[in-house]
Design goal:
The complex is a heterodimer.
Chain A (H helix, E strand, L loop, with lengths): L3 E4 L2 E4 L5 E7 L5 E8 L3 E10 L2 E4 L6 E7 L2 E6 L8 E8 L5 E3 L3 E5 L1
Parallel strand pairs in A: 2-11
Antiparallel strand pairs in A: 1-3, 3-8, 4-5, 4-9, 5-6, 7-8, 9-10, 9-11
Chain B lengths: L2 E5 L2 E5 L4 E8 L3 E9 L6 E6 L5 E4 L2 E5 L3 E6 L8 E9 L9 E2 L3 E6 L1
The chains are: A mainly beta, B mainly beta.
Chain lengths: ~110, ~110
């Protein structure tokens, strides 16, 4: 089984809808991250968390929120989706050396 | 502000034709430089971490090197299965940035048989 899983893998939603992307990990890492990837822009950090009480904004947090339900679970929400949030979203965990391990990604399309 | 620039954006090689990918960075103090490989439709896969100028790491046909301003990923005698996007990321020493990585936009490598 994969160490970092993401659900759903693909999602099409309409403008204004609320959507949640979920991430689970079995690596035992405390550090978890959410990124979005757009063609030509690389990976950009949305939020990160070092434990259930430690949530931090990244470079592009506007329009997103997160929840760290447990050490192993970190969810990303789009409260009211808009078309420019169409992207590939990745969850990652990191060990004490900050080596990051990524999930398979969620392809989100907002119409 | 931490910055990472990768070049070239895309590189096409014949099988067996060695080359290098470049990662230039600007940080207030480097804690670590990371290389990842990303296949289409998949999450990035960790390759190497380099911590200080002069350090080198190798894995199969790949060798990563680090100077005070840039890192190179050397690919020796590449094979078609080396085709992927290679991402570089830096972690700064400064307290505001020490807990996150800043990624470059990647080099898309295609190795032709």
């Amino acid at each position: 089984d994969a160490d970092v899983t993401q659900t759903p893998r693909n999602r099409i939603t309409k403008t204004g809808k609320r959507i949640m992307l979920e991430c689970s990990q079995t690596k035992g890492h405390d550090r978890m991250y959410w990124y979005r990837q757009d063609p030509g822009l690389g990976l950009r950090l949305i939020y990160y968390s070092f434990d259930v009480k430690d949530i931090n904004k990244g470079e592009i947090s506007d329009g997103y929120s997160v929840s760290r339900q447990a050490q192993a679970k970190f969810s990303l929400s789009l409260e009211s989706a808009i078309p420019n949030q169409t992207a590939l979203y990745f969850c990652a965990t990191a060990d004490y050396r900050y080596e990051q391990y990524f999930g398979p990604g969620t392809r989100l399309t907002v119409t | 502000e931490d910055q990472v620039t990768q070049s070239p954006e895309a590189l096409r090689l014949q099988e067996g034709e060695s080359s290098s990918l470049n990662c230039s960075y600007t940080v207030s103090g480097l804690r670590g430089l990371f290389w990842y490989r990303q296949d289409p439709g998949k999450g990035p896969e960790f390759l190497f971490t380099l911590y200080s100028a002069g350090e080198e790491k190798e894995k199969e046909r790949l060798k990563a090197t680090l100077t005070k301003k840039e890192s190179f990923l050397h690919i020796t005698a590449p094979k078609p299965e080396d085709s992927a996007t290679y991402l570089c990321a830096v972690q700064a020493i400064s307290s505001g940035s020490a807990r996150q990585l800043t990624f470059g936009s990647g080099t898309q490598l295609t190795v032709l048989p």
